[in-house]
């Protein structure tokens, strides 16, 4: 029994776990967590927040890093709030056109425009195109499931618990760090949900396209 525990301890040691991680490829469909290391300099002149990227509940769509809420050695009890699934990027051209047509039809109805009937016909056609686009996105995910994620490729991150996409809003700063962009969860996602995987020295760098 003791020998078995010793062998189990050697297999699960941090060194072996790290070596196993280095030899494992990241693939489409994998579930990951994002951990932000402390970015403060030697003089503590840069505001840093260390911790897991997490949500504030199903109602609040913000994503934040809460200091003191778990670390790499001791994950938080609500670790499920920190899990994201790697997905290929979705197409949004038809859905973007649908959003624009919906706004235009709403404006036409509020102004009693005579072209509202034509707008409704256009809306139906765009809705069909948007549904086909969403179906194509689902098919692409099925086809690419298990593919290796390489540097330079673009992905989306689907929050496992809420089934919403991690999204950045370019023109909206974060609440605490005003030099950073606001990060939130979006049900359908948009072009702000596209992330480019780059290599920066020995660290992963997630960039918005």
Spell out the key features of this protein.
209 residues; alpha+beta; Trefoil (Acidic Fibroblast Growth Factor, subunit A); seven-stranded antiparallel β-sheet; three-stranded antiparallel β-sheet; 4 helices; 10 strands; 25% strand; globular; disordered N terminus
Overall description:
- GO terms for molecular function: calcium ion binding; inositol 1,4,5 trisphosphate binding; inositol 1,4,5-trisphosphate-gated calcium channel activity; phosphatidylinositol binding.
- This protein is an alpha+beta fold and 209 residues long.
- The chain folds into two domains: 27-39 and 46-91 and 145-197, Trefoil (Acidic Fibroblast Growth Factor, subunit A); 92-140.
- The protein contains four helices and ten strands.
- The strands form two sheets. Strands 1, 5, 6, 7, 8, 9 and 10 form a seven-stranded antiparallel β-sheet that branches. Strands 2-3-4 form a three-stranded antiparallel β-sheet, with no helix packed on it.
- A hairpin with a 4-residue loop joins β6 (154-159) and β7 (164-173).
- α3 runs antiparallel to α4.
- The relative contact order is 0.14.
In short:
Helix content is 32%, strand content 25%. The chain is of the alpha+beta class and 209 residues long.
